[in-house]
Amino acid sequence: MPEVTIAPILPVTLSGVSATGPASASAGSQAVGPAFGEVLNGLIQQVDGTQHRADSMVESLALGEPVDVHQVMLAMNEAADAMNLTLQVRNKALEAYQELMRLPV
Amino acid sequence: MLSSLRINGSALDAERQRLDVISENIANAQTTRTPGGGPYRRKEVVFEAVAAEAAGMGGGTGAGGVRVAQISESQAPLEKVYNPGHPDADSQGYVSMPNVNIVEEMVDLVAASRAYEANVAAVNTTKSMISHAMELGRG
Q1: What pLDDT score does B1 carry?
Q2: A46 Cβ under 8 Å from any chain B Cβ
Q3: Candidate from A70, A74, A81 with C-beta closest to B130
Q4: What is the pTM of this model?
């Protein structure tokens, strides 16, 4: 009867991933750019900035300062558009999350 | 796309300044005394295109908006009116009146107003385009 040997199961190695997992992952993400959370935070700060700018322009117009009416309207529109866009992004992210949660395990 | 809003916003600013200058011309059409001496001279605005790089926009068509480069006084000859009783009459009894032509100013006024409306229409169109873009993928 010929010898039957079962080859041992070799550990699976992924090429390109070193043994120091998390450290190399963070180094990889830093080579790409700032963390996604920071980017998101920065964008929300910008939207907040447009809202504050619109508010302060409306205030100075109401106080009678020499500010152009069309500049106030443009600032208010920019704030509304930025808020709308953020809302749409949130909706899309929520949809994607719900799709993922619907996946059967 | 938002850069086009700023471009038209700059044009609205420039037209508003032009309107200020036209209003000053119309208000001072009979002014014979100015702080600088002499009668009032008609003021004109010079518009200048703003380079896209200077305006901080990322190239593309090279459009950057408009700004008022300077407000210059017209060197057209002044109108001399014979009025010896006037306090500002010279030795021959002539008073130098401003070189402001009301008809010309009214035409400039209409032009400035129409340019303002055109820029507002462009802003509204851009805004509706942005709104339509946000409806992409809805429903």
Answers
A1: 65
A2: no
A3: A81
A4: 0.73
- Structure tokens given for B79: 């109108």
A56 touching B (Cβ < 8 Å): no
Q: Which of B55, B22, B17, B24 is nearest to A71 (CA)?
A: B17
DSSP B90-118: -TTSEEEEP---HHHHHHHHHHHHHHHHH
Distances in Å between the Cα of B88 and the Cα atoms of A79, B15, B30, B31, B97 are 55, 35, 12, 11, 10
Between CA B79 and CA B96 the distance in angstroms is: 6
Is residue A29's pLDDT more than 60?
Answer: no
Say whether the ipTM exceeds 0.85.
no
The residue with greater pLDDT, A76 or A34, is A76
Tell me whether residues A92 and B137 touch, CB distance under 8 A.
yes
Which of B3, B6, B12, B66 should be substituted to probe chain A, the one whose Cβ sees the most A Cβ atoms within 10 Å?
B12
